[in-house]
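Researcher: Here's a chain I'd like modeled. Treat it as a single chain, no partners, no ligands.
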Amino acid sequence: MVENLFNNILLPVDLSAATLCTVEKAVDMAKEYDCSLHLLHVSPTDWLPMSRMSADGVIEEIERPDRRKLMSQMIGLVEYAKELSDSAIKIDYSLQRGKWDQQVIDMVNDRGIDLVLVGQNEEAGARRTMSLNPDKIAALTDVPVITLPYRRRLTHLHSILIPVTDFLPIRKLIYGAYIASRNKASLQLLGVVADKGKDRTQYFLKKSYQLVHESTPVYVHMAVTGAHNVAKAIRDLAKEEGTDLVVVNPTKQTKLAALLLSSPSETIQKYSASPVLAVNPI
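Model: Modeled as a single isolated chain. Structure tokens:
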């Protein structure tokens, strides 16, 4: 197995009521994996300095009050995170203006980020809002994105669930086995067997089991479902068994069937009670 898959974690923070809780969990994970942690806040407001004329007639530029306030909040978050970590990890921050998804993508590419954490608020189901698109970030950066529900953690995991369909999910197996080995967690491979491609799915399920069993110390077992929607199958099983993490490929494996005839498909990240790691296939 690779020695260390996670080195630099990016945590977007919206400075909502859930932010402190998300920072605490991100610090715990950064300490567990010996990573640096970078906090990012994105604002849509214009931060260009304001101009004013001084008493002696000289035009001078002053920083906007809203930017000063945000900087103060971010510095406070960094200090809080450093206190939590006992200064054991490197923690810094950025304050950017623009659109959330694009700024996160740019930050990943510019700073060598190898994991993005997306914290969520306390609400669940249709009431849970998402300011970021984890699938888009994972697909465009080729970096894994973990969506973390408010009351869940990313350390001391016990079980990890990976769906297997009609191809060999190498990258999901690598990340799943890596996280499982660091947490001494078990790994469950769920074969999602549709009528078409049934033999291929069963073949790749057995091959996945063999790869993990023979190359890692992780306890791995298999299950099979005849569900047609991958996201719904893993969401339902994860909820039933109290799974600590599910690992999927973005877009195709995260789309739930439309909840209503008139509604578009939703993603598992919005509805899952378990953290969801989305990573591109090879």
